[in-house]
Amino acid sequence: AIVTDEELLAVIEMELDEIDEDEEEESGDDDTKQCNTKEEKRCRDECFEEKKCDSDEPRSNCHSRCRDDCCSSDDEGVVFEDGIETDNNETSSSSSSSLDYKRNQRTFPIQDDSLPCEEYNRHNPEGVYYIKIPKTDTYYWSTVAYRSAMKRDKKCFVHAEHADAYELNLRNRNIRKSFAFTFIRNPKDYVLKTYFYFKVTKNGEKPTATSIQEYSRDYGNKQSDFMMCEANKRVYEKRGIRGADNLAKAIASEYDFIGLVEKQDESLVLMQLLLGLDTEDILYNPSPNAGTISLWKDDSDVCERVKEEYIPKGAKGYFESEDFYDDNDVDIKLYREVENTMEATIDRIGRDTFTTALRKYRKQMEVVERKCLPSVEYKCSGPGKPWKDLNSCGKDGCDAKCISSLQF
Fold this sequence. Notes:
Blueprint: H1 5-21, H2 38-51, H3 59-70, E1 78-81, E2 84-87, E3 127-131, H4 138-152, E4 158-159, E5 178-184, H5 187-202, H6 209-219, H7 222-227, H8 233-238, H9 244-252, E6 257-260, H10 264-275, E7 293-295, E8 303-305, H11 316-319, H12 322-327, H13 329-349, H14 351-371, E9 393-394, E10 397-398, H15 400-405
């Protein structure tokens, strides 16, 4: 069954009300249900904070009631794979899907008339909005948005600059006359990439276990923060949306589409099918130096190599720990929500239809890389070389004319 965003929020609020109402007096006996999984422990701790036990009541009594509300007695827990929480007892999915997801899982909406073509409206944003989260291969996705919109009408408004959703006033956007989308990374990869880019390469810091843990603690959940249409988490909490899982669902529901950098081919093809675009609309020239060479315009005119990411000695345990989860809980839940939403949407469209479109896209990308990529000029062609002011890359992509001239 397909659930609308309004219905999803109603379900979330109903579940939270049930938690508040289900408060029973229990003895302080520690033989009550035990919290074995990280999610159960999180539920228990949030329950303890929400119930605000009487000051005269023993802390153990309050925890006993919360354990009964949140926890199971079995030993099956969760493990972390690449920063993403997964169930140990997760069953293998059916042949039609690579992930298990709830029957009422939200799907991305199918657009009635391709990308909306509207003029700029500050108070009630209309047009195409790409929320450009730093260090998520942003240039590629912005060129797809520009080229697709300009193909329809050169007056179409497209925003694809670095600005967060709150700054762009997306909470007041005209849903019928706008299309909001973004791409996110696996939280573990995102922490590593941004840490090595901003702290190690740009600031010259030495990568250490202590340093990266401090960075993750101070800048965790950066992707979900960038995507929030409200000013901060407190606004969502006032609407009854509490906890990482519910907050992630609420944030995801504010977007027409969210792609995954690690599944860029699948993401682009799915967005193509949802918008009714042609395969040619999502083609691009991938830079061979993307993510490895950059230019600090404020420092010099010389291109520099970005330090390659790795897990500093002694930090591996942190990325597999509950501390990393606590520092990035919303991003982790958001990534899993997007995975499930993508799978549910592919099922809705049809696996055969999606597989055929994906195969066609990859064949055409091979042609692009063979015929167009060699002629592309980049600002940074190599480390230590001066950057070029003139190049063939614009808002509509690198050497877009070559791509447009191809016959498939």
